Amino acid sequence: MSWIDLEGAANVRDVGGLPTVDGRTTRPGVLLRADNLQGLTPADVERLTGELGVRTVVDLRTGREVQDEGPGPLRATSVAHHHVSLIPEPPGELPREEIRRAVPHRPDRAGTSPTDMTGFYVGYLEDAPGNLARALRLLADPGTGTALVHCAAGKDRTGVVVAVALSLAGVRREAVVADYARSAERIDAVLARLRSSPTYGPALADTSADALRPVPASMERFLDHVDREYGGPHGLALAVGVDEEAIARLATRLVGTSPHAR
């Protein structure tokens, strides 16, 4: 896992180098994950599209978030953008409750800790199975090229999609959880960026970094749910509409040894 330091985004990294159950590692330069890309500088855009070779962006935000934030700098490039929301949304202004689902920061039921995001993550599966499948199929498509998946904070919706993709590619569970939890290292900067946005700022004005900070137990419980309800990530993928061929292509892209697999 390599941090990618940009001026206009705080939680960007390459998920290459993660160990698989068969002793291999994920390939660098294939799948990147990030928080909101609205603040990218020209130098950031040049680095992403040039040095890092990003060809596709999978944007997991809601349509209202995209509309309110406006087109990001990468929209002016040849990078292909796919909007794949994991949250159903009503028409009109994005309500505070949907902001809480977009950037989870407090318990969704009595008795859960502020950092237990499991209920939100299970909700993404239940509310948008078709879009989860679409995101996975995009990542499996060799024509996608180097892909960057992002949402607002780069830890929750992005965390779910990346965790499922890595699991399908055979990444060891402890490495999947560790990659998810690593966003905690950048949570102060992520919160500062979100607070500066009129879209997210009002709902997060009184929120502490600790209330946003991801903890391994949230991903552990989410993966436990996937094991219990679907028989594991493979069963989940089939249940939401990702076929065996796409699952195999995804594994090849993420851990294949050929440079042409990208």
Q: What's the β-strand tally?
A: 6
Work out the radius of gyration.
Answer: 17 Å
Low-confidence stretches: 258-262
Broad CATH class: Alpha Beta
CATH superfamily: Protein tyrosine phosphatase superfamily
Strand fraction equals 5-15%
**Overall mean pLDDT:** 90
Q: Overview of this structure, please?
A:
This protein is 45% helix and 9% strand. The protein has 262 residues and is α/β, with parallel strands linked by helices. The protein has a single domain (2-253), classed as Protein-Tyrosine Phosphatase, Chain A (Alpha-Beta Complex), CATH 3.90.190.10. A six-stranded mixed sheet has the order 1-2-3-6-4-5. The longest helix is centred in the last third of the chain and has 15 residues, at 216-230. The radius of gyration is 17 Å and the shape is globular. The two termini are 18 Å apart. Mean pLDDT is 90; it is low at 258-262.
